[in-house]
Design a protein that fits this description.
The chain is built from 15 helices and 21 strands. The chain has 465 residues and is an alpha/beta fold. It folds into three domains: 91 residues, Rossmann fold; 205 residues, Mur-like, catalytic domain (UDP-N-acetylmuramoyl-L-alanine:D-glutamate ligase), CATH 3.40.1190; 146 residues, Mur ligase, C-terminal domain (Protein-Tyrosine Phosphatase, Chain A, Alpha-Beta Complex), CATH 3.90.190. It has a ten-stranded mixed sheet with strand order 8-7-9-6-10-11-12-13-14-15, with helices on both faces. The chain has a six-stranded mixed sheet with strand order 16-17-21-18-19-20, sandwiched between helices. A hairpin with a 5-residue loop joins strand 13 and strand 14. Helix 5 crosses helix 8, helix 6 packs across helix 7 and helix 14 packs across helix 15. The longest helix has 17 residues. It is globular. The relative contact order is 0.09.
Length: 465
């Protein structure tokens, strides 16, 4: 649908509480549109939108679309949603989230789309922080909440627009990037893609969206990414650690909390030393991608070291939530085997006696298609607890169960338990925790609530004392 969003005064968002949808709603509000919306449940994100003037109904209601000029929906919204049905009855134009994001992005001269199977949120956040602190005044849309920008969106007043570019359902093919970043390409979203070759084809199409004077910034250490680039005729800037690239990291060191520092080189010339306040070797790649992008946009990256070190990460990315009886509680959004391995490798560099991992698988299709990879990703955990699969957009067909994963991990000789209820998990952890233990809740669903339960126990005990 070829539309001009400026022509629509009243815009309704179905599923407005989603991290990306809420960000788009903020941008539309700031541009002077009347914004309405609905969702299944209330949240602090929705309350923030209400505070800015949005009119939001809980739950969905067909009447709420009446009077709208445009309706925007997420991939999780089905065609039989009462608001979708009513919008079509009234002949109101209906578009998906990615189409709106693309239309917004098209208005900016320098659009940066950060794509990749892993690391999008952290890299988008890092780029945004550097651009903001170096007075570039960007508009930013992040798939997580970042304290530095006050949430998941920042509305600037410049030609710079930075957003995550997700490959699921080929959403990123509706974008208009001046710089397309490819952090890595991995097997995921196999409920939509047929196989890894199908995924690589989509990333190739994404890279080719870049105009002739734009750039593709890509990881030279990732074999799948390099395969993608074979079919891309654009200006390409590579970054990496192990292979010779345009941007390279050398002399990587880790401090006592597992946060890396490194020397950055551009085309063989020393640029500077950078220290990170986020853990893990994988974040060196994210930092290199950030330096590459910001350099292309004219940032004096030699002066960026201070701001890079001040970046403490986004919520739910190796986020320290607190402590209970000397045990540290950490939460992480990892929901793919590669991400889990990276998280647990990071944990090895963090002070600990035992690593206790609590994992909530995300979607039945991903759990089934990557089951063996999931099983091997917990080898660095001393005790692993698996809870029920978070369905997200899917329905339980009965083809896979969390117990199947728990059993496979156990077969590898790792101490593993399947526990269904969050309260039971919290009680079990409370009974075994020792000072020095590192408890990591992992998953893209609501697994973080277990850490909150544990910390609440601690608060109650302190009050009782």
């Amino acid at each position: 649908m070829d539309i001009n969003i400026e022509n629509f005064n009243r815009v309704h968002f179905i599923g407005i509480g989603g991290i990306s949808m809420s960000g788009l709603a903020h941008i539309m509000l700031n541009a002077g549109h009347i914004v309405t919306g609905s969702d299944l449940k209330d949240s602090h994100i929705i309350q923030r939108l209400r505070n800015e003037g949005a009119i939001i109904n809980i739950p969905h209601d067909a009447k709420s679309v009446e009077g709208s000029d445009l309706v925007v929906y997420t991939a999780a919204v089905k065609q039989d949603n009462p608001e979708m049905v009513r919008a079509k009855e009234l002949n109101i134009p209906v578009i998906d989230r990615a189409t709106l994001l693309g239309k917004i992005m098209k208005k900016y001269k320098y659009g940066v789309g950060i794509a990749g199977s892993h690391g999008k949120t952290t890299t988008t956040s890092l780029i945004s922080v550097l651009l903001e602190e170096m007075s570039y005044d960007p508009t930013v849309l992040v798939g997580g909440e970042v304290d530095v920008i006050g949430g998941n969106v920042r509305v600037g007043n410049s030609d710079y627009f930075v957003t995550e570019a997700c490959e699921y359902t080929d959403s990123f093919l509706k974008f208009y990037p001046y710089i397309a970043v490819i952090l890595n390409v991995d097997s995921d979203h196999l409920d939509y893609f047929k196989n890894i070759d199908n995924i690589k084809q989509s990333f190739t199409q994404f890279a080719n969206l870049v105009p002739s004077d734009g750039f593709v910034v890509a990881c030279g250490d990732d074999a799948n990414t390099m395969s993608v680039l074979k079919n891309v005729d654009r200006n390409i800037i590579t970054f990496g650690i192990d292979n010779k690239c345009n941007w390279n990291a050398k002399k990587i060191k880790f401090d006592e909390k597992g946060c890396p520092s490194f020397d950055a080189y551009y085309n063989g010339k020393y640029v500077g030393n950078y220290e990170l306040s986020i853990v893990g070797r994988h974040n060196v790649y994210n930092a290199l991608a950030t330096l590459a992008v910001c350099s292309l946009l004219g940032v004096d990256v030699k002066k960026a070291a201070t701001w890079m070190k001040k970046f403490k990460g986004t919520h739910r990315r190796f986020e320290v939530k607190g402590a209970i009886d000397g045990a540290i509680i950490i939460d992480d959004y990892a929901h793919h085997p590669t991400e889990i391995k990276a998280t647990l490798l990071s944990a090895l560099n963090y002070p600990h006696k035992r690593i206790i991992c609590v994992f909530q698988p995300h979607t039945y299709s991903r759990t089934k298609s990557l089951l063996c990879d999931f099983a091997s990703s917990f080898d660095n955990s001393d005790i692993t607890i698996i809870t029920d699969i978070y369905a997200a957009r899917e329905k339980d067909s009965g083809i896979i169960h969390a117990r199947d994963l728990a059993n496979l991990i156990k077969e590898r000789g790792n101490e593993t338990y399947y526990i269904k209820e969050f309260t039971d998990i919290a009680e079990y952890l409370k009974s075994i925790l020792k000072s020095g233990d590192l408890v990591i809740t992992i998953g893209a669903g609501d697994i973080y609530k277990i850490g909150e339960l544990l910390l609440n126990y601690n608060k109650k005990a302190a009050v009782g004392a």
